[in-house]
Description:
alpha+beta, three-stranded antiparallel sheet, 6 helices
Amino acid sequence: MPDDxxxxxxxxxxxxxxxxxxxxxxxRGLKIAMRVGGEVVRSGVAQYPAATGANMPPGxxxxxxxxxxxxxxxxxGRSYATSEGLGKTWxxxxxxxxxxxxxxxxxxxxxxxxxxxxxxxxxxSARGWKTVERVLFTRHGRIWRTFGAVVQKALAKIAATGGG
Length: 164
């Protein structure tokens, strides 16, 4: 299987000219598509994996466990309220200029990078925690379809007005 796939678009100049007739509509559509695409990813990373032995007493080490929404508890009764509610804190922001539309998916949780980010600890991966990149990869089809719908709507408007 080839590493890349090529394609050919005929009359690209006409498409661009047609899209330039409706810049506000195209920008609005791209902003909506980016918001929807961001929500597709956000909803995926916000889902916690099923609880494991690490989330219930006596824990995998026989001494401590992590209680979701609270933090660490021990069999001796000690507790450390360290949870920052990772799943509930993921957000989507869309920034747009005349030449660019960007979606930003993020969280301000201090430990997110090690649970669901680029520095994910191996044991989090083994317990089912998905990184943002993994969710983006597994859900990219939905995102492309969203942007495709924006393009189709713009093309239909161009065709209806005789543009291009």
